[in-house]
Amino acid sequence: MKKHNFSAGPCILPQEVLLKASEAVLDFNESGLSLIEISHRSKPFVDVMEKARALALELLNLEGRGYKVLFLQGGASTQFLMVALNLLEKRAGYLNTGTWSDKAINEAKIYDDIYEVASSKNANYNYIPKGYEIPTDYDYFHCTSNNTIFGTQMKSFPKCSIPMVCDMSSDIFSRQLDFSKFDLIYAGAQKNMGPAGTTLVVIKEEILGKVSRHIPSMMDYKVHINKSSMFNTPPVFAVYTSMLTLDWLKNLGGIAAIEKENEKKARLMYSEIDLNPLFKGFSAKEDRSYMNATFSLVNEDLKETFDTMWKEAGINGLNGHRSIGGYRASMYNALSLDSVKALVEVMSELESKA
Amino acid sequence: MKKHNFSAGPCILPQEVLLKASEAVLDFNESGLSLIEISHRSKPFVDVMEKARALALELLNLEGRGYKVLFLQGGASTQFLMVALNLLEKRAGYLNTGTWSDKAINEAKIYDDIYEVASSKNANYNYIPKGYEIPTDYDYFHCTSNNTIFGTQMKSFPKCSIPMVCDMSSDIFSRQLDFSKFDLIYAGAQKNMGPAGTTLVVIKEEILGKVSRHIPSMMDYKVHINKSSMFNTPPVFAVYTSMLTLDWLKNLGGIAAIEKENEKKARLMYSEIDLNPLFKGFSAKEDRSYMNATFSLVNEDLKETFDTMWKEAGINGLNGHRSIGGYRASMYNALSLDSVKALVEVMSELESKA
After folding, report:
1. Where are the domains of chain B?
2. Which bin fits A64, alpha (ψ -120 to 50), beta or left (φ > 0)?
3. Given CB 3.0 to 4.6 Å as the disulfide criterion, which of A184, A235, B2, B272 pairs with A165?
4. Is A353 noted as a catalytic residue in this protein?
5. Model confidence over B155-197: pLDDT tens digits?
6. B 159-218: CB under 8 A from A
7. Which ipTM did the prediction report?
8. B 11-70 residues inside an 8 A Cβ radius of A
9. Under an 8 A CB cutoff, do B10 and A214 touch?
10. Backbone angles phi, psi at B292, to 5 degrees
C-alpha cells in the first residue's frame, strides 16, 4: 500500500511521474537504452532539457519577459554562494525568516557586507517580519518565500526598487504569484519539482554582468545561460523527472489549479489544529505555511499513543525538525487531500480517546 | 533489443543495476515509498550513502589509510575549482594532457599561479608527456589519468613528493593502481560508477587545512567530510545507483577482475584498428586508452557506408568528439566483450566489402 507521505523533502512526487521515471531508467522512449546511459548531447536528452526549461517559464508565466531558466547542481546551498558571487558588489539586504535565510546570509557574508533588513530570529522564527524598509541603493534584496522548518510563508512581498532574489525551494509552483516581481528565483527540486540533485534557477538576464569580480565558470550564471544549462554534464535523471513533474502540473491546469487543492489541504489541516484541544500550532496564524504545517501536542504524555496511531494509519514523515520539535505535516503539490484527511482523522480519533 | 552502447559518457551501466535502480524509483526496499521521495536523513538512505562510501574505499584498497570519501554535486568541473580553493596557496603544477586538463588549469588559474609541468597540446594531445620534473616546493601536482576525448591514458604516474591530485573521471575502477600514491582522486560518476549527477571525491584528510583563504561551505572538503557527505541534500538517485554499480563490481571480483575484461576488449579493438588497412588509430601506441579507442577511416569516402553498417548492427555512440573527428569506441566497465566483437565484425566486414 502506498503511504501517506508527509515528508519535508525529499518528498512525495506524483505516482505517474514515478512510473514514467522508473520506465525511463530501463528503456527511454523505446530507444533500447536507459535514460541514464545516453549522451546528454544527444537530441533526445537535449529535448528533455529544453522542455523542462520551457515548462518552468510557462508555468511561472514568465515567457518573453527576459528570463532564462537553468537546472544546476549543488542545491539551494550552492545558490546562497552563487547569488552573492554574481550580484553582490557593495551591499545587499536580507530578510531573515529562518534557518535557510540565515545560511544564505552566512554564505553571502564571506564576500561583502550584508544587512539584515529584518529578522524573526528572537521569536524562533515563528512569524514573518513586516513593515521593514529596503534600502534603495543596495545591490539586491533576498528573501525566503516559505520556511520549511518553522512552517511560515510570506503571504505578500515587499515593494522593492532593487533586484529581488527569492529562495522558493519549498513553495515554488504551489501558488499563484506575480513572478515577474522577482529578478532571480531559485529552488532545490526536491519539494514540488522533482528528486534531489538539481536546482532550478530563473533569472532576469539584465541583472547580470554588474559585478567587478572574476566569477569561476561553474559559479557564473552567464556561463550556464550561454551554454543553455549544459556547460557540463547535467544531472540527467533529476532534470528528466523534474520535466515530468512540471508536465504533470501543466496537465492538471497549472499553478492556478494546484493552488486550489493546496488551499483545501491547508484549511483542513489548520482547522483541525485549531479546533482539536490536544494540539497547538507553532507559527503566527497570518503567516502559516500552506506547505508545512507545524504543530505539537499540548500534553506530551500523549506522544507515544499518537505516534503509534499515525504510523498504523500508514502515515510517514510527520516528525518535526529538531529545531522546534513536535510535528510537521508537509503538504506539497503531490500530496492528496485524502492523505490530509487520513491525518486529521487520526488527530480527532486521539481526541475522542483522550 | 539492447544496443551495443559505445557512448563516451553518460554511458553504459550494468543491466542489473538499471533494473534495481528502476525498481527503487517505484518502491524502495518494499517500503511503500520511492527512493526519491524519502528523507535523505532517514536510516534507509543514510545506509545507502555509507555503503557507497565504504565500497569505494574497499575497491580502491584504501581502507584504514586516512582517506575520506565524498559524493558531491557539480561534476568534475566543480572539482577543478574546489581543488584550487582547498589546496592552492602559492603555486601548483599541472600536467596538460587534453581538454579536461586544460579546463582544470584555467579554473585553478583564477586564484593563483599555475605551472604546466608538461603539455602535449602542440600535437593535439595525441600522446602523454613523459620525463618532466615536478617542483618539490609546489602545493600539489595535478594530472588527468585518462583523456576521454583523445583516447590517451597515463600508464604510469610520476614520482611525486608533493600531494598528487588526479582526475580519474573516465577510468576509475577500471584498472589496478596503487591508489595510495594519490592524495586526492576525483571522478564524475557518469563513466564507470553511475549516472550523471554525482562526483566521487577520495581525499587524504591530512592534506587539508593548509591554505589561508576562507573557503565557502559548499566548496570546502572539510565541511563535507565533517557532515559525512550530507552537508546538504545529496543527489539521492545518483548516489544510490553508484552504490549499486560499485556493489556489482565488488561481486564480479573487484578491479582485478574487471581489469582483465577491459584488457581483452582493448586488445581486440586496437588489434582490429592496427590490422585493418581501412582504419588508423589517433593516439601514440604506448599511450592508448583502454577506455576510449579513437580512430578514423583512412579513406573518408567510406564514411557513409561504415556509418550505415554499424548503426544497422545496433551500435550506438561511436562518433568521435568534434575536437578530433573520426570515431571513438568507449569501452567502459559495463560494456561487454560481445559488443566489441560486434563492432570489430562490422569493421572487418567493411574491409571485405571495400
Report:
1. 15-252, 254-353
2. left
3. A184
4. no
5. 999 999 999 999 999 999 999 999 999 999 999 999 999 999 9
6. 188, 190, 195-198, 214, 216-218
7. 0.97
8. 11-13, 18-19, 21-23, 25-26, 31-34, 36-40
9. no
10. -130, 110
